Amino acid sequence: MNDLTKDSDRLLHDGRRLLADNRSGGRHRRTSIGKGSAEIKTQHLVAKVKRIVLAVGAIVIGAMVAGLIIDGIGFVGVMLTFLAIVAATVGFAAFPKIKVPKRAELTKGNAAQMVGRTELWLEAQRPALPPPAVTLVDQIGIQLDALGLQLQTVDQEHPAAREVRKLVGEHLPEMVDSYRKVPTSLRTEKRGGATPDEQLTQGLTNISREIDSVTRQLADGALDDLAIKNRYLDYKYGETPDALPNHTEKN
Length: 251
What we know:
Elements: H1 2-23, H2 27-30, H3 35-69, H4 74-94, H5 111-125, H6 131-151, H7 159-180, H8 196-237, H9 243-250
Helix pairs in contact: 1-3, 1-4, 3-4, 3-5, 5-6, 5-7, 6-8, 7-8
């Protein structure tokens, strides 16, 4: 049973190391276009590790109980238990796979959930996109992270929030889906002055600019609020340098 315990400890250690690697920005983080999608993947991975830990624990306890009842499970029992641990680890590590959101699900939930789902959906589309579009998708992922943070403090019915939901949850996926419907052999043929590859790249560029514009608009509002609060505090508690000596003389 000592070998069995060592093997199970090693498997659990490997699972924890993989989780730590993903959290610290390892292989998992490099394939994510933004923090929103990375967090969804991390949550999915944590759930997998928990299932593996529970399964391995149940198998080990079951083997120990069986050993106590029948006065040892022998070499065959140890090997079967080890194989059961390996099978459970491999099975729970492979399944269930992370679910890519459907287009209809992108705008559901709050701003943070919308950003995470959209980033995850965009990542799944990258293999079918031309290199310039992939670069833009990665850029949009970074922009969505910043925009999502700002939208968390904005009323979800705010005009800017509604516009973002349309832009990110409708216009962006519609454009990508329309491109993917074009046969691969026709994506480099010009039609109307531009190829589908060029049209997609230009469309993503426009969306990226619009996201940047909305982010700046929301940031301007926050900066205005900060300036107003600073002026108020300066008016209420501020003291001019000339007033300080006079105040000291009176004392």
